[in-house]
Amino acid sequence: MRRIDRNAQSLGISGLELMESAGSALSMVARGYHAKTILILCGSGNNGGDGMVAARHLAGEAEVFVLWYDSKNLTPLAACQAERMKNCSVHKIRFRCREEVSSHASLFSRADLIIDALLGTGGRGTVREPIRTCIELANQTPAPILSVDLPSPGIMPDKVCAFHRAKTEGAEVYEIGIPILAEIATGPGDLLLMHDRKRDAHKGAGGEVLVIGGGPYQGAPWLSGLAALRAGADIVRIVTPHYLPEPDLIHIPVMGNSISTPDLDTIIPLCERSDVVLSGPGLGTRSHDVITAIASHIKKGVFDADSLKNPLPQAEESLFTPHAGEFERITGIKPEATPRVRAQSIKQAGLPGTVLLKGPVDVVSDGTKVRFNLTGTPAMTTGGTGDVLAGVCAALMVDLPAFEAACIGAYVTGRAGEQITGIYGCGMTARDLLTAIPQVLFGRTSEGE
Ligand SMILES: NC(=O)C1=CN([C@@H]2O[C@H](COP(=O)(O)OP(=O)(O)OC[C@H]3O[C@@H](n4cnc5c(N)ncnc54)[C@H](O)[C@@H]3O)[C@@H](O)[C@H]2O)[C@@H](O)CC1
Ligand SMILES: [K+]
């Protein structure tokens, strides 16, 4: 929900607007109880904010008491709603500790309806005071309890009024105006799935990525490697026949002009020690037997470009990043133009992993979940952008499952491309993309902030 919420904001629907719709829907459900006296219990998060909006909507229609937690952790949206509620004809009673809640026990017994806006999707762990006392007192009354979004842990609701999606069985669901694109398309909300690097993180905490490629196309694996570094990998090794002077990357030479089976003794131990292995960029057509031989030694594998051939290599967890032609080569299915049909083709193909099918709209699917990526520009048809994308996905897969890594990788690379196109237009190179990647991925420049 946080992902969808954040994506909705980037599509122009603010959190405050969503909260207003949620509180309005809640007040409508509350009206169905024809209660003369309503007690609204509000926590310090946005769930509490929803309750305060409903209080504003119900003011004048019933006697409304709002018992709200005036915590130092009040979220900005909840604080805004507390401010907005000030001038409404509702009884506003703040509490800061358990004793203050207990001193208002009579309010609980007076109420014909209790609205539980204490904890929603942000609740974590055992319920702490003073919220716990609110829940206990609510459960002791005969009044029906209407829970907002999901029941606060331990409370016994009569009904649950959920927003956009049911989070518990039996909840009544109300739409709050979230655009469908916020859910089915990638967006800045997807970045919330990334884990923050701990302050005391040791060298290598960003993961070790191995890139296997090069041969006929010398630059491709180096571009992927640099992209992996820009997307947060700590150590990136490049197994490739041709050395390029890139001091940030570790070159692992091979015996001939292309990667071949005598190199397996060098490559297999590296595959086993790496968090993620990306194979294929610039590899050419002569090294597929090496890729199939190493696949079973790979924990997490990104298979790109020339490694996308049958027999299809398969790691413990695999991400395949084909364009339309490569997808047809490995599945025999020619992807239709529309993203929706493309998603169906991925499901039909039943590949053993997640697929990122590149195109004007990228489609990411593991056969069950589907997400569309709309970022990017026509200028990104320039050579090497696919190598960058694969490198970004590989670095993200250190910490994330393949599906999430592919969604974020596609989104971020496309956004970076949009920024660079704004500067260089069709004269952009794949290399130009590299500097924009960390800005989008780790900076605070994404839209809607
Ligand atoms: N699209 C959305 O996601 C929308 C969400 N909305 C509401 O926002 C809610 C989520 O808001 P938040 O993320 O602010 O989270 P919550 O409002 O569920 O709770 C977070 C607050 O509760 C405290 N808390 C967490 N665990 C606790 C525990 N075990 N004991 C005591 N206190 C605890 C936290 O310190 C924090 O202040 C949703 O459930 C929904 O009601 C709506 O405003 C509409 C839009
Ligand atoms: K609740």
UniProtKB/TrEMBL annotation:
PROSITE patterns: YJEF_C_3, YJEF_N. (6S)-NADPHX binds at residues 220, 282, 323, 387. GO terms for biological process: metabolite repair; nicotinamide nucleotide metabolic process. AMP binds at residue 386. Its cofactor is Mg(2+); K(+). Keywords: ATP-binding, Isomerase, Lyase, Metal-binding, Multifunctional enzyme, NAD, NADP, Nucleotide-binding, Potassium. It comes from the Archaea. The keyword NADP applies. It catalyses: (6R)-NADHX = (6S)-NADHX; (6S)-NADPHX + ADP = AMP + phosphate + NADPH + H(+); (6R)-NADPHX = (6S)-NADPHX; (6S)-NADHX + ADP = AMP + phosphate + NADH + H(+). In the C-terminal section; belongs to the NnrD/CARKD family. Belongs to the NnrD/CARKD family. Homotetramer. Catalyzes the dehydration of the S-form of NAD(P)HX at the expense of ADP, which is converted to AMP. Together with NAD(P)HX epimerase, which catalyzes the epimerization of the S- and R-forms, the enzyme allows the repair of both epimers of NAD(P)HX, a damaged form of NAD(P)H that is a result of enzymatic or heat-dependent hydration. This is ADP-dependent (S)-NAD(P)H-hydrate dehydratase. It comes from Methanospirillum stamsii. The lineage of its organism: Archaea, Methanobacteriati, Methanobacteriota, Stenosarchaea group, Methanomicrobia.
